[in-house]
Amino acid sequence: MIYSTTYESGAGLFEKQIIFAAAGITVMLFLAFFDYHNLKKITAWGYVVIILSLVSVWLFAEPIRGSTRWIDLGFFRFQPAEFAKIIMVIVTAKVLDQQGEKIKDFRYVLLSLIYVVIPIFLILIQPDLGSAIVIFCTWLGMMAFSKISKKHLVWIFAGLAVAAVLAWFFFLHDYQKQRINTFIDPASDPQGSGYNVIQSIIAVGSGEYFGRGVGRGLQSQLEFLPERQTDFIFASTAEELGFVGSLLILVLFFLILFRLIKIMNSTRDNFGMYLTLGIFFMLLVEILINIGMNVGLLPVTGIPLPLLSYGGSSLLTVFLALGIIQSIAARRKVIKFGQ
């Protein structure tokens, strides 16, 4: 799909993505043979490195289309916010594993939240609301399935409601507010903030059952659909492959998530279980938000679709996560035949 939507522009994105995919698969296979328990030993270093990387973005990165999200290494533009997602899964898994029953004490919940809030703040000032939402929702999902008191969960959701109100009045940029308004009524600004959503919905609908064919999507090929190889690649896919092709992609995502649940239920320790749980929520949130915004059900937040959207950092992060899952699957408890 990346080749189909970008080959006429001659940008070479397809070739770059192939290189990223090869590197990602190599890393995944390496991690599959790596004992995931050793991640506990490097958690602190990983957290420090990702915080320093996010601070470096804030201090030194050049703005691209109004956002400072990338560190240019010459041969590769590194987006720390993407790697922060998997690092925070590992950090939260270690905290929940170590604290055990102590997590019922709200002080330890706050300690875990502080670990998460620091990178979220550094990501928000880039600004990158989408990645911040993914990290927070992943943390919240992991906490919800931990040994946390249900009363404390209620406090967290109440705090979220207060934070949402404060964010609307004091922290959200005008364009972010406009995206929310556009989500409610895209037709209110069809040539401005509502343009992306309207074109995406048109692309999805015009694919009908079997699509227009690869390389024949009018919305994507004529560039009516913006960011067609990244944020809106699902809309491009729906237009060219139709309902059948879109359904196939959804089924493949479902199979990945289903396997994560199976692995999580058979892990031999809490650390492996929490790692799998965190990766499950990380992928689930990204899939739901990206597809939701492509079909007009959620506001546009700039979240890539795992394994499908163009982007080296995003693809490598997903393969890192899948490599960890492979390691957990290889070391889970043995289930006897018939059980």
What does this structure look like?
67% of the residues lie in helices and 1% in strands. Strands 1-2 form a two-stranded antiparallel ribbon. The chain has one domain (2-330). The chain is mainly alpha-helical. It has helices at residues 2-6, 13-32, 39-60, 80-99, 106-124, 129-144, 150-171, 174-184, 195-206, 218-221, 233-265, 270-294, 312-330; strands at residues 71-72, 77-78.
In short:
By secondary structure, the protein is mostly helical.
Secondary-structure blueprint of this entry?
Blueprint lengths: L1 H5 L6 H20 L6 H22 L10 E2 L4 E2 L1 H20 L6 H19 L4 H16 L5 H22 L2 H11 L10 H12 L11 H4 L11 H33 L4 H25 L17 H19 L9
Antiparallel strand pairs: 1-2
Helix pairs in contact: 2-13, 3-4, 3-5, 4-5, 4-6, 4-12, 4-13, 5-6, 6-12, 9-11, 11-12, 12-13
